[in-house]
Amino acid sequence: MSETPHRYTAELADRVEVAWQDRWEEEGTFRAPNPAGPWADPEGVACRGPNGKLLVLDMFPYPSGAGLHVGHPLGYIATDVFARYHRMLGENVLHCLGYDAFGLPAEQYAVQTGQHPRKTTEDNIVIMKRQLRRLGLGHDDRRAVETIDPAYYRWTQWIFLQIYDSWYDETAARPDGGLGKARPIADLVAQFEAGERPVPGEDGRGWIDLSAAERGEILDSYRLAYTTEAPVNWAPGLGTVLSNEEVTNEGRSERGNFPVFKKNLRQWMMRITAYADRLADDLDRVDWPEKVKAMQRNWIGRSQGARVGFPVVGSGESIEVFTTRPDTLFGATFMVVAPEHPLVDGLVPQGDWPEGTKPEWTGGAETPAAAVAAYRRATSRRSDVERQMEGKDKTGVFTGAYATNPVNGQAVPVFVADYVLASYGTGAIMAVPGQDERDWDFAKRFDLPIIRTVRPAEGHDPDTAYTGDGPAVNSANDEISLDGLGVAEAKERIVAWLEDKGAGHGTINYKLRDWLFSRQRYWGEPFPVVFDEDGVSHALPESMLPLELPDVPDYSPRTFEPEDDSSEPEPPLGRVTEWVEVDLDLGDGIRHYRRETNTMPNWAGSCWYFLRYLDPANDEAFVDPANEAYWMAPQANPVEGAPVGTVDPGGVDLYIGGVEHAVLHLLYARFWVKVLHDLGHLTSEEPFRRYFAQGYIQAPAYTDGRGTYVEASEVEETVPAIGGEPVFTYRGEVVTREFGKIGKSLKNMVSPDDMYRAYGADTFRLYEMGLGPLEHSKPWDTRAVVGSQRFLQRVWRNVVDEETGALVVSEEAPSDELNRLLHKTIDAVRRDFATLGFNTAIARLTELNNALTKLEAAPRAVVEPLVLMLAPLAPHIAEELWSRLGHPDSLAYEPFPVADPELLVDATVTCVVQIKGKVRDRVDVPADITEGALRELVLALPKVEQAIAGGVRTVVVRAPKLVNVVPA
RNA sequence: GCCCCCGUAGCCCAACCGGCAGAGGCAGCCGACUUAAAAUCGGCCCAGUGCGGGUUCGAUCCCCGUCGGGGGCACCA
Question: What are the Methionyl/Leucyl tRNA synthetase domain coordinates in residue numbering (predicted)?
Fold first, then answer.
């Protein structure tokens, strides 16, 4: 029998923690009341949230087969601490966690193990739930939604139909004064029917004259969710197509790293480009890390410029280019079109090279047609990876055609080159080598003329393009002169001139493309859409939702050789004929339809899960409007740092998660929320009002001589002689240490289960929060966890006798000094919790506790606030101590200690005396000493008198803390 | 190549508005407890802020340059 049976050990922590987790669950401690909906509890809202509400959110976790590692809970603990703190401030806090359970990894795992993805997914969720529960997170357990639940994806499908049944009206006024918003497609049909809007098409037929198929095609060109045949990213190794956001720079799939090919396929798209401006502009209205905003702005890639037509010599055609530098038009000495540009065929003249063709322009071919054909063939065969590898060496051939520069009538040669991208701008450029590095390189390579139209700054290398600002030169014709103007003004002038001449117009261009929304996989939400015999799509009525994913014997996708770009996607649902072929009555009697066999990407479920958290039991609506407004509505004051006059967009109060979703999930969710807002379903215009990007927990990983990772847990460390570097060995072989993301691939998994066992959840929580700032990536060090345990042991010992279990706090009042320390600690900890500075909060609490440890017995008047302040970080031990201190109720809603401002300042402070900025003396003075008195007092100090024997130049007084004397 | 962030003790990190470089933890060392060890407890040691300039009475903090680390973008016209 141990002599200290009541010591705070891992075993004791385990008992205490599990007991409190049970009690929280039984009492529904963290269930947040809703104002409306099926759980309407307005009274609960009123008494639980006298100080308002708080919606705290974690990124939607994917239940992986490997279970959690110690990196996963970092954000969950942080939000939990924040949420618990705010509950103690008297706010109604909603914090919960659900599961994003559709998607590729689950399906691949299922295929590997021969089990149904539903089975493996559900098993994984069970494991993850157990691991998370053991962490002691204060989640509202009723709100743990799962995307694979038909009661959930019914609403994912419903939202899809809202988007499908909408179009973007550029001219519609928004409440915020801007123009453009989503409207029901029925409004558009009404406009066509009434003749208020011209029906697209050249034959002048009216809406009623069109066939159903023709109408369907026109509507598809407006719908925010539509099918179209377009070049898409096809990954044969995955058996599915992917969105642009899911393809890496190297032209491979983000998941699985398979090669991706461009292929023309009919696919579902989301018209996210309609929202490009608002998605870019509204970043000013949210509180996000600047780097994430920058990444989104970058991805949207808005650039202001002009479109200019260059008439092709000897043809009625004109090549339209996009340029951000219309001010440099006079320096456009040639043009380049992308190899895939549809105009190329029409450009190339029959017969021989024209007069003036330089030998290097021909690519060695006899005729322009041969040269262009050969070049196009060569580029189409090269993958993006190969183009990348070739660096920036410019290639291309002359098309044999010339086009006329509209500002000076010069005929300039037109080239085909792959440095111009078909997918950006108009797929054609005017080349201005004097002011563009890429054009400069091309001009040098192909011996083309270079005209500078901006005078380079002093010291500019004359052998390079000049892209900076400066006065225009060589930029005049009979009607207009830009000479002498700066870039900005020159742009304005020339655009006005072009518009006047009808040669071009100012415009805005975006890098953002529409979002490819279908996948040829089984494990996803089915599209609530059917096609009739003409191929026209029809929405299923709401009454037919959810359209359940059929249980099929063969759910594995057809995958191909990763390099086989001739393959075609084959969705698994396409094999379920009895499901695909249906007879339905959609309003004009029973007819035969074919279901959509693609499924949605797993971003679909995560685009709106936070809305379902608000009202998960509602089967009348995806969320009750009153609940949405309560938790998400725009607030009276905009976020800090927003431009003056900003109207708050509303949204989740705090969202914490890794930065890896900066342009995927975060952009998609913003888009959906904006559409739903436009359609009147949401008060909020943004999903995430405040987003905080957490750092990663990194762990040591070890490689052997061949560079292969070895199991980190089996590596031994030996520290040789003093001062020597530690040596790491694995099975006798010396290995090299590095730090990286925790996971299977680096073989450095550390499971939270091990931490619970060895230390308990509170110690683990404290360790992760105490490591350093939340936004930093930090190395995991299992050996260091013990420090957090020691702290909790010392706290415990200040309250409980380790031998008898008796309460040992003193009922005597604390000393003035201790009381002041307590109040300073309260003040600091409150500030730290508010700003997510958990590491410094822990340091302050440790300091306060260390002061108690030195006493014979810790006074209750200090212990109780200490326990309350510790509660958000280490809730189990805090609950246990609180209970032992004689409080029967959970402390979850106990008011957080308040600092007395009187006690934050000491009666006397130490004033630093500097001479010429160097500390030379210090003196204790009353805290409220006046500047004059302090000055006199310091000047009378012996050391100072000595130093200023030769006179005084200045005396800087910062009462009461500092005086700096500068002798003459 | 361009843009952003970060360099403080052996390691992770503090330092309010430009005002004494150190709060907390790990590791190390010494001591207490122990037959011993582990655990625990008490104590100690350790940097002048990557480097070079500048502004200032005074710089970890502001400015310029430079080196190192991390991240983003990368023919986007």
Answer: 60-164
